[in-house]
Design a protein that fits this description.
This protein has 335 residues and is an alpha+beta fold. Helices cover 16% and strands 30% of the residues. The strands form 3 sheets. Strands 1, 7, 8, 9, 10, 11, 14, 15, 16 and 17 form a 10-stranded mixed beta sheet that branches. β7 and β8 form a beta hairpin. The longest helix is centred in the middle third of the chain and has 12 residues. The radius of gyration is 26 Å and the shape is elongated. The two termini are 21 Å apart.
Length: 335
C-alpha cells in the first residue's frame, strides 16, 4: 500500500547469495476453562491442598495452581478452599477450575488495528503505532502486533512468531518488516543477521551533540543495577549506531540514527551514554518536553532486498503527529 505517508522505491533485483494420591473421576467436558475433580486418597491424607491439586493437574506449575486456590477456583466438598496450606483429608472431594494462564492465551488471534505500509505475497511492512507491543511477554500477554497478525493472516500461525523477524520497543513508532511465508521469514532473519537490512530512525534528544555526525560503537548488555534497563557494559554484545545531527537549538536536537546492529534499546542506550537521552524516555534519563510524552524515536526508513525476488525495496514513513511539530520546530521542515 502506498500513500501520502509512504514512499516505496523499488530498485533492480539483487544477486542471490547463497501422579499418585488422587483417584481421578471422569474428565469434564472439554470446555474453557477445563474442570478437574477427584477424591483425596489415604496417601494424601494430611497433606497441603496445593500438593493435592498438583496431583490433579501436574502439567501446571505449583505457583499457578496456588493462584487458582487464592482466586477461589478450587473447592473442597462444594466450598471454596481456605488456602494453599490447608490440610486435606482422605475422602474429600476436590474440584479445580483450570483457568488458563495468561501466557497460554497469548498466541491467540485478536482483531486489532495496525497500518500496513507495503504488502505482497511474501511479506508486509507494518507502520507500528507508539504504544503497541510487538510480541507477547510478561505484562503484555494480549493486544500485541502478533495477536493482530494472527487475526488478519490466520496462516501466520504456522510461522515462527507469526512472521515477526525484528521488533520495535513499545513506545517506538515506525516501520518493521514481517514475513508471510517460511521462505521469506528465513531469508529476512538471515539478512538482518548479516546486517543487510538498512534501518534509519529519527530521534529528538535532550542536549547538543559535540559534532555534526559521530558514531557510537559500544557493547550493550543488561544493566547490572536495574534489570529493566540495558546499558553500555564490557560484557555486552557489540553494537554500533551512526548519528547525524540535523538541527539543534542548544537545548534539544533533531537526530538521524542509523543502526548497524539491533540490540535491545540500542539507540536509547547509545544516545544516553553520550549525554543525549531521548525526549520522553524516562527509563534512560529523558523527560517530557516539546509536547512529547513518549520516547521521541521513530523508525522512519527501512530498506532491504526482497527475500524472494531480490528486488530492492526502500520505504519511508513520515513522523507521527506527536513528534512532527517538535521536529519541524527544530529543523524548519518535515524532512
Amino acid at each position: 500500500m502506498e500513500g501520502e505517508s509512504y514512499r516505496v522505491e523499488k530498485g533492480p533485483p539483487e544477486a542471490v547469495a547463497v501422579p499418585a494420591g488422587i483417584e481421578p473421576l471422569a474428565d469434564a467436558e472439554d470446555d474453557q476453562p477445563e474442570t478437574r475433580e477427584g477424591t483425596v486418597s489415604e496417601a494424601l491424607h494430611g497433606e497441603r491442598l496445593d500438593k493435592a491439586v498438583v496431583a490433579l493437574a501436574p502439567e501446571f506449575s505449583r505457583s499457578h495452581l496456588q493462584g487458582l486456590i487464592k482466586d477461589a477456583q478450587v473447592r473442597i466438598d462444594g466450598k471454596p478452599a481456605a488456602g494453599a496450606s490447608q490440610r486435606v483429608r482422605a475422602g474429600q472431594h476436590i474440584v479445580v477450575t483450570l483457568v488458563p494462564t495468561e501466557e497460554s492465551r497469548a498466541f491467540r488471534a485478536e482483531s486489532l488495528p495496525f497500518v500496513v505500509a507495503y504488502e505482497d505475497d511474501d511479506l508486509l511492512v507494518v507502520d507500528k503505532a507508539a504504544g503497541m507491543v510487538v510480541h507477547p511477554a510478561a505484562g503484555n500477554w494480549s493486544g500485541t502486533l502478533l495477536n493482530g497478525l494472527l487475526h488478519r493472516y490466520p496462516q501466520s500461525a504456522a510461522l515462527p512468531r507469526a512472521g515477526i523477524v525484528h521488533r520495535l520497543d513499545k513506545d517506538t513508532s515506525g516501520l518493521m518488516v514481517v514475513g508471510k511465508t517460511l521462505v521469506a521469514v528465513t531469508a529476512l532473519v538471515r539478512a538482518i543477521a548479516a546486517r543487510e537490512v538498512h534501518r534509519r530512525y529519527r530521534a529528538i534528544a535532550h542536549g547538543r551533540p559535540g559534532a555534526a555526525s559521530f558514531s557510537v560503537e559500544a557493547p550493550i548488555g543488561r544493566d547490572p543495577q536495574m534489570r529493566l534497563r540495558m546499558a553500555v557494559v564490557a560484557s555486552g554484545k557489540q553494537a554500533r549506531t551512526d548519528v547525524e545531527c540535523v538541527a539543534t537549538d542548544g537545548t534539544h536536537s533533531a537526530l538521524r540514527c542509523t543502526l548497524h546492529s539491533g540490540r535491545t534499546h540500542q539507540i536509547r542506550v547509545h544516545l544516553a551514554s553520550r549525554g543525549l537521552p531521548l525526549v520522553g524516555d524516562r527509563l534512560y534519563g529523558g523527560r517530557p518536553a516539546l509536547g512529547i510524552e513518549r520516547q521521541a524515536l521513530h523508525a522512519a526508513e527501512l530498506a532491504f532486498a526482497h527475500p524472494v525476488s531480490r528486488q530492492r525495496l526502500a520505504l519511508v514513513s513520515v513522523l507521527p503527529a506527536d513528534l512532527a511539530p517538535a521536529w519541524r520546530g527544530l529543523t524548519g521542515s518535515d524532512a
